[in-house]
Structures are given as structure tokens and as C-alpha cells.
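ok trying again, last paste got cut off:
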Amino acid sequence: MATFSSLQIRCPSFLSLSLLPALSTPELIAAGRFLMAETDASLFRSARSIAQTVEVGTRTAAALADQATQLERILDDADAMRGAARRGRRVIVDVARGAATDR
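nice, full thing came through this time. structure:
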């Protein structure tokens, strides 16, 4: 494989920029077809990579939504425990007052 220095295009080793004017029409067509095949392969790889990225993003978004729901449940449970602790403190205070006034 040769690389065009200014264009950074990979081409078969038989093709170089200096030889381009000397190539016959069938050789130019072959080189063009090679470049088209390389471009198609590159586009296919890019499309596959994009599809995988979208899939990972979708799974990540779903996982984040599940975690957000789980955190909401945890916060609700924590609020319920806080309320129960407050009510328990009030009961203890009331029992302590009652015990203190019973003496």
C-alpha cells in the first residue's frame, strides 16, 4: 500500500502520485474501484460503530432510569423512617413526662 502524501489516501502499492499520469485507463479504473471498495468498507465500519454506540447509549439510559427509580424508593423509605423516628421520640417524651408526673 502506498499513501498519497497530500491526500492521505491509501492505495495499492502499484499506484503512486508520480505514476498517475502514466497509468492506463484500466489501471486508473482499477485504482478507482479499489478506493471505492476501501471507502465502502470504511463507511460500513463507521455505521457499525455508530449502531453500537447508540445501543450502548440506550442501555445506559435505561440503567440510569432504573437507578433513578431505585433512588426515589430509597428516599421515600428514608423519609418514612425519619417520620417513624420522630413519632417514636414523641412517644418516648410523652411516656417520660407521664412517668415524671406519676411520682
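cool. The CA atoms of residues 54 and 60 lie 10 Å apart. The chain is about 75% helix and 5% strand.
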